[in-house]
Amino acid sequence: MNEIPEIPRGLPGTLGQAVFRLIRERGLVGRSESDALDAEWKAVVGPELGRRSAARKIKDGILEVAVTNSAVLQELRGFLHETVLQQLQQRLPNSGIRGIRYKRVR
C-alpha cells in the first residue's frame, strides 16, 4: 500500500505546496514540459512527420528531435529545417531555441 509522503520540516505545509513538491520530485513537471514541447513540434511539422519524430528536450538552445527513419531525417534536415526552426521560435519565444539537432532512433 502506498504511503503519503511526509512534508519536510521547515517548509510551508499547505496541501497545494505538498502536491507541487511531490509532482516535481517524481519528475512529472518535466514530463509535462516535454509533452508540451513535443505537441508544439507535432503542430509545426504536421501529422505525417509528427508520427515519425518527437521533440525531446532543449539543451543550451538546441532542440533535440528523435527521428525514426532516414527519409524523415533527410526531409527535416533538408528544405524543412529553416522553416521548422523559425516556426518553433515564433510559437515558443521564451524557449531560447536557436537550433535543432536530429537524432536517428530505432
UniProtKB/TrEMBL annotation:
A Pfam match: DciA
Name of this chain's protein: DUF721 domain-containing protein
